[in-house]
Amino acid sequence: MECLEKHMKGQRVGMNVYEYAKENNLLKGSAIQNPEFREFFKDIKIKTIVEIGTFRGISSAYMANFAKTIFTFDIINYKAKYKVWEDLGLTKRIHYYTVKNSSEIRQILDKIKFDFAFIDDDHQYETVKENFALVSHCGKVLLHDVAKLKKFPGVKKFADEIGAEVTGNIAYWHK
């Protein structure tokens, strides 16, 4: 993984996102706690990512190492993400939107050209299906939390339905 450059005063040179998340107790609930997620991005070429489900912005920050720009959406504006992105020098590469529903996401997506999508939001079958419909035209979609069958059975059900390749806690669908 590429190391991040020094951005803020006092910021350690070369601190990577995973180490930052560990040191700041931000791994829980984040896709980067799964090694298969971290490994996935090493072999894929991506320019622009759309992420649905931002939470604390750790996954956004991690993916920013592999893409030029990220557009990320959530229904709750968790303030912690702004500090994460600032600490890691990523504020100019990650564009965040607080939205009420998929209609608002669609309005923004109509103006964005992207080649990859990451869905890690509500985790209910219908919501995952609806969000997939919003982004699948890009041709590459990654789903998170497919292994948490008791907690999120809808994600795995949908991943199986679309024929996504499941590896651990992620599922990858591509055209």
Please describe what this structure looks like.
By secondary structure, the protein is an alpha/beta fold. The protein has one domain: Vaccinia Virus protein VP39 (Rossmann fold), CATH 3.40.50.150. The chain has helices at 17-23, 35-40, 58-63, 80-87, 102-109, 125-135, 153-162, and strands spanning 48-52, 69-74, 94-98, 116-119, 140-144, 165-167, 170-174. The chain has a seven-stranded mixed sheet. Helix 5 packs parallel to helix 6 and helix 6 crosses helix 7. The model is unreliable at 1-14 (pLDDT under 50).
Secondary-structure map with pairings?
Layout: H1 17-23, H2 35-40, E1 48-52, H3 58-63, E2 69-74, H4 80-87, E3 94-98, H5 102-109, E4 116-119, H6 125-135, E5 140-144, H7 153-162, E6 165-167, E7 170-174
Parallel strand pairs: 1-2, 1-4, 2-3, 4-5
Antiparallel strand pairs: 5-7, 6-7
Helix pairs in contact: 5-6, 6-7
